[in-house]
Each structure stands twice: as C-alpha cells, then as structure tokens.
Amino acid sequence: MGNRKRTQHSSSKSSNFNLIVTALVAPLFLMTIVFIYYLQGHATEHELVVTCLIAVLLIVIVSLEISHYKEWTRNMSLANTLLSGGMVLLMGAIYAFGPNIDTLYYLIPIAAHAVLITYLVHERFALVSSVLMAIIGANLLTLSSDFNQFVFVFIYFLFSQWFAIFLYDFITDRISLFKTSLPLIVLHIAIVITFEVRSFDDLVSVDTVIAIAFAVLSIFVSAVLILGLFPLFEAGLNLLTESKLLSLANPNHPLLKQILVESPGTYHHSVMVANLSESACEAIGANGLLARVAAYYHDIGKSFQPHYFIENQQNISNPHDELDPKVSAEIILKHPYEGAAILREYGLPDEIIDMTEQHHGTTLLKYFYYQEKENDPDVREEQFRYKGPIPQSKESAVINICDSVEAAVRSKSNPTLEEIRQVVRAIIHDRLTDGQLDDSQLTLKDLRVIKESICDMLNGIFHSRIEYPDLKDSQPAREDSS
Fold first, then answer.
1. Gap between the Cα atoms of 130 and 373, Å rounded
2. pLDDT for the residue 459
3. Residue 397: which region, alpha, beta or left (left: phi > 0; alpha: psi -120 to 50)?
4. In this structure, what are the phi and psi dihedrals at residue 443, rounded to the nearest 5 degrees?
5. pLDDT at position 195, please?
6. Contact between 290 and 239 (Cβ < 8 Å)
7. Alpha-carbon distances, residue 374 vs 186, 280, 322, 368, 408 (angstroms)
8. For residue range 423-462, what is the model confidence (pLDDT) as tens digits?
C-alpha cells in the first residue's frame, strides 16, 4: 500500500509539472520578447502591461483546458512546449527582422503549428491553442499599431489555423498534403484581398502583391515544416500516430516476419484476432486501427517456443502430454511478458507493449490447473494465473476477449451461429465475473455491441463458403482440346 501511495504521489507531481510547463512556456516567451522590445524602446510601458495581462489570461485558459484531459502525458507537454515556444520565438524573430513591414505577418507559417498540435497532442487542444496563438501573434506583431491591425492579424492567424486543422486529414502523404494546401492558399488570398484592398488601385499595388506572395509562401513553408518536423517528433517521442500504426501493420516488419516464419499458426491466429478486434472496437467507438496492430503483435512471445502452443502443432504430437502441468503452465504463462520484452527491444510504442502484457490479464489456465488439482487438491490458483495486469483500455479488453473467442471457435468443426453465440457469450461472461474488465472502461452496452460484432464477423467467416453440388451427382465437365 505504501508503494502504491508513493507511485500515485509521484504520478500526481509529474502531472502537475507537465501542466505547469505546458501552460507557462508560450506566455512566458511572449512576455520575455516584449520586455526585450521595451528595453530597446520598441514597446511602451502600456504595451508591456497589456502583454503581461494577456499572458496571465492565457496561462489560466491553458490550465483549465488541460484539466479536462484524463491522461495528459509528458510527451504531450513536450510537443506543445517545443511547438508553441518555437512559434512564438519565430514570430519574435520575424518582427525583429522587419518591424516596419506591415504585411510581414502573412509570411508566418502558423498553419504548421495547428496541424502538428492536432496530431501530436489533441484536436480539441489544437483548436484552443489556435486561439491562444492567434492572440499571442496579434499582440506580438502589432506593437505600436492601432487596434484594427490587431484584429486583422488575429483573424488571419485564427482562420489559417482552424482551416488547416480541418483540411489536413492525413499529413504523411506528401502529394495529398500539397493538394490539400490549395484550398488554404485560396483562403489566404481571400483574406489578404479583404484586408488590404480598398480600391482597384490597391489590387494591383506592390504592397498587395507582396502580401499575397507572403501568404502563399507561408502555406508552402507550413507544408514543408509539417513533413519535416512530424517524423522527428514521432521518432523522438516514440509517439503512436496513425502513420506509425500503418507502418507497424506492414507485413514486412521484421517482427511480423518472425512470427510468420517461426510460428505460422500463431500468425494466422493473430490476423484473425486483429480482424475481430478492429471490427469490435470500431463498433463501440474505440481505436480500431490500434487494436488491429496490437493484435498482430500480441502473441509474438509464442515464437520462442511455438510448438508448445496448439495452433502450431499441426502434424506433431502435443509436447504437453509428456510434461508436468506446472511445467506446461510455466511455459504458457510467460509468453505475454517475453513478447513485451522483445517489443521493448525493438522500440515499439508503449501502448502496443502494454496490450501485449494485458491480453490475458490475470486469467486462469483452467486446463492445467484442474489437471494439477487431480494430483494435488491443495494447489493454489495463483500458480496457474497470468500475472497481469488486467486490460487497462477498451482496445486491450477487446483483444483479451477476441483472443479467447478465436481460439475457442477455431477448435470447433463447422460451428453454427448459435454455437458461436454461446461461445462468445460464455467468454464475455467469464471475463466479466472474473474481474478482467474492471479497469477497461467498457460498459454493459459496449459488451453487447462487442458480442454482436464478433458474432457477425465469425458467422461471415465460417458460413460464407458457397455450397457446391456433390461431384458424384453432377455431369463431368467437357475438356476442350484447345
């Protein structure tokens, strides 16, 4: 109990530190830059005071926003710190380079900030952060200007970021990224014309042309920054992004090749579990792609001793027939943790590793337990249970269920739909009453939806074959000599 309290206290301190860093970094950079401008005579005392008030307001807003997230990680704080702090510094550098150029703010690649925050932190946080960054940019780049200029810059930055968030759906495809940039370019040009053109002469003026060129160039710079920075953050923080999941799902990944070569039965089992898990997760609104990829790797621990697992025992005798139940249980019980160890060695994301360790929870190896119980009535269940932890997420719990369901249904010959339903219902009930789903956040409604999804998938798999007529009752096909 003492260790648990210390762990919770440490986690709380870490969470508070992450919140403080995330809330303070951009406002502090803003105040520092404006204070430097004040010392240089480029900002007045009034502007410095207003900036400090804005910074305090932003700190409060960010703190309140982060408090809504149940899991705010160190990586999210680090990503936001680097992106927001870097963008504020870039704005300060651009203002220092050309404080007398009124249209220079069009050049700032503000869209890159919003898109990267979306993918590296959270979309909701990106929307809020876009407003804050627009306020910071407008304040920083319109010192000694009138209020109208502040409003113009704020609207430009806000619209640029919000449209970028909704337009850039998939940022690792270079061709689609630049194609998607075209609507944003049109938006930027429309904003420039709205702000800068008050007569036909303004439309063809040098200032307007330069402003449009800056606005268009900022989109291309944003696209380059997105393509360049995203892989760096993804690799440096070991973030589990959609693109990384798709990369891990590639059959040419060395670990998936290892499973296929060393334990082909396990590979086929994993693919089936992946299909069931993805469908079930999507049905309840969980991350189907994450479940699919985690299922591919969840049994990699079996590749160390594949012949001890039934799906790899084609045309060979079962080696467990010659072993003591305790020895058999020891071999079976360690495969999730051996798998997690090799996944860590290869640097896979923590989410995949956690699901590998959790996919059996603390379930009981009933076959070997009751076999040993015949020899030793006093045997303890703990010796035949996985050491856990139990599933900590919806995706992990779904894999836990689908893993057992696939194995149970595969053991039956041509199961009927009713038999499939009975198996699925029994396994879900067993997991529920055994406490395996207590930490998974799954509701009873979710479990009903999962059951229907799994049954539909399995029914399609086992009953989708065309019934051909008996060859004995059919006429032989004519073979053409040609």
1. 63
2. 87
3. alpha
4. -95, 170
5. 81
6. no
7. 77, 38, 16, 10, 24
8. 999 999 999 999 999 999 999 999 999 999 999 999 888 7
What residues contact 236, with CB distance under 8 A and at least 6 apart?
none
- Do 88 and 110 touch, CB atoms closer than 8 A? no
**Strands (DSSP E) found in 253-406:** none
348: left (phi over 0), alpha (psi -120 to 50) or beta: beta
Conformation bin of residue 323: beta by default, left when phi > 0, alpha when psi is -120 to 50: beta
Do the beta carbons of residue 395 and residue 294 sit within 8 Å? yes
Q: For the segment 125-145, what is each residue's pLDDT rounded down to a tens digit? A: 999 999 999 999 998 888 777
Structural contact between residues 373 and 405, judged by C-beta atoms closer than 8 angstroms = no
Residue 72 to residue 153: CA distance in whole angstroms: 31
Q: Are 255 and 300 in contact (CB under 8 A)?
A: yes
φ and ψ at residue 55, rounded to 5 degrees: -60, -45
pLDDT digits (tens, 9 = 90+) for 355-376: 999 999 999 999 999 999 988 8
Q: What is d(CA 48, CA 34) in angstroms, rounded to the nearest whole number? A: 6
**Residue 38 tokens, joined:** 């004040």
pLDDT band at 463 (very low <50, low <70, confident <90, very high): low
In this structure, what token pair is assigned to residue 174? 């270079």
Write down the pTM of the prediction. 0.70
Give the position of tokens 């959609």: 242
Look at the block and give the residue holding tokens 């595969």.
410
Written as one letter, the residue type at 283 is: A
